[in-house]
Design brief:
mainly alpha; about 0% strand
């Protein structure tokens, strides 16, 4: 996986975790759900990129 894409996906995952934690802390279910969704998207992109790399080598 390209280092730039990996870093971008990791950043999105961290951003999602932050939103989820903030949502839990203030009792905002919508923000918490947004955070979980962002994490899922980032994880899916990262998994797809890893699968791509596995077939390249």
């Amino acid at each position: 996986m390209a280092a730039g894409k990996k870093a971008k996906n990791m950043g999105k995952s961290v951003k999602g975790k932050t939103k989820e934690a903030t949502g839990k802390a203030v009792g905002n279910e919508r923000l918490e759900a947004k955070g979980r969704a962002e994490q899922a998207v980032a994880d899916a992109k990262q998994a797809g990129a890893k699968a791509k790399d596995a077939f390249r080598h």
